[in-house]
Specification:
Layout lengths: L1 H26 L5 E5 L6 H17 L3 E5 L6 H9 L6 E6 H10 L8 H4 E16 L8 H10 L5 E4 L5 H13 L4 E4 L3 H10 L4 E5 H10 L3 E5 L24 E9 L4 H16 L1 H9 L3 E2 L4 H22 L6
Helix pairs in contact: 2-10, 4-12
Length: 326
């Protein structure tokens, strides 16, 4: 009798917990939502977040506030997200830098496991990278850069927004495929690296196309080549790296994640709001103007995609013998 009563009490308790979760999901959201960005203001990730946030605010009926928490290739923001309550009020717009590269590069220093610690909301799109140079830099083509680097190995500096970022990984792949050696100058975010390239403090860098379109249009930076397999619609005159190094391709993808164990009903609510924002004409036009693709997924599809990207970039890191700085 006692056993039957105990089982009944346990079942009743579980039912109450599930019912409470369902009620929370039904009233969600009832206060502002934080959307973390692991990189500085003005970089590609920040730009995407600030395009989506107002639309998502409108769709959810609550403010979605972007917060920049920089450092460690986005891992500081990711660690904060992993420690946040799984209630849908703290989210993050991340990239493969944070969710597929940095956990591998920093595996001896961090304990984050994206497949374990986060729940996907939706993929939001991708941005090609572009190899840009200060206008005073003499190289105008990929072949020119390769020739200069081979003539002066270890003498040409290139900037990135940090170790393990997609621009850094792309530059490392470029060096590997071209058989050259340059010097990596890591900044705390993409924007300051871009600023120093414009100022001539460093000669060139791979940057998210979305973050440098204004400079390309204004002539303060010169586009040498895009990293995508095809030329970018917004920069059709800029050749691809693959036109010189066949098979070369890399892009930055962006996506929204929540802490693990966030209720499915809340993930579905966020997914619907984000996909509606991505489907709006205003969002599509603004992303297209930045040279970015616009795509979305279900939470389950995004979880599977993150796992596939971890495997892909893990192999790249191994093959290119890329190591995190001490």
């Amino acid at each position: 009798m006692k056993t039957r009563l105990s089982r009944a009490a346990l079942a009743f308790t579980v039912a109450l917990i599930c019912a409470a979760g369902a009620v929370r999901a039904q009233v969600y959201p009832d206060r502002p939502i934080k959307l973390l960005v692991g990189f500085g203001a003005g970089g590609g990730t920040d730009i995407v977040a600030r395009i989506l946030a107002p639309q998502m605010s409108q769709n959810l009926g609550q403010s979605v506030v972007v917060e920049n928490r920089t450092g460690a290739s986005g891992m500081i923001a990711a660690a904060d997200l992993a420690k946040s309550p799984p209630d849908g009020y703290t989210l993050m717009l991340g990239t493969q830098t944070t969710f597929a590269v940095a956990p591998i590069l920093y595996r001896k220093m961090v304990t984050l496991d994206p497949a374990r610690d986060f729940a996907g909301v939706t993929l939001t799109g991708a941005s090609p990278l572009v190899l840009v140079a200060n206008p005073a830099f003499p190289a105008h083509t990929v072949a020119d850069v390769i020739a200069m680097a081979k003539a002066s190995p270890g003498k040409i500096n290139f900037g990135t927004g940090g170790v393990g970022t997609t621009p850094h990984m792309t530059a490392e792949l470029f060096e590997h495929d071209a058989g050259i050696r340059m010097v990596h100058v890591a900044y705390r975010g993409e924007a300051p690296a871009i600023n120093d390239t414009v100022a001539g403090q460093i000669p060139l860098m791979f940057a998210n196309l979305s973050a440098v379109m204004g400079h390309l249009n204004g002539g303060t930076l010169r586009g040498i080549a895009v990293s995508s397999a095809q030329r970018a619609a917004t920069a059709p005159d800029v050749r691809t790296v693959a036109e010189t190094l066949p098979g070369f391709a890399a892009e930055t993808w962006f996506g929204i994640v929540a802490p693990a164990r966030t209720p499915h009903a809340i993930l579905d609510r966020l997914n619907a709001a984000a996909r509606k924002a991505l489907g709006s004409v205003d969002t599509q036009v603004r992303l297209a103007q930045l040279g970015m693709s616009n795509s979305s997924s279900s939470p389950e599809e995004f979880d599977a995609y993150i796992k596939s990207e971890i495997a892909k970039w893990g192999q790249v890191i191994k093959d290119a013998k890329i190591e995190a700085a001490n």
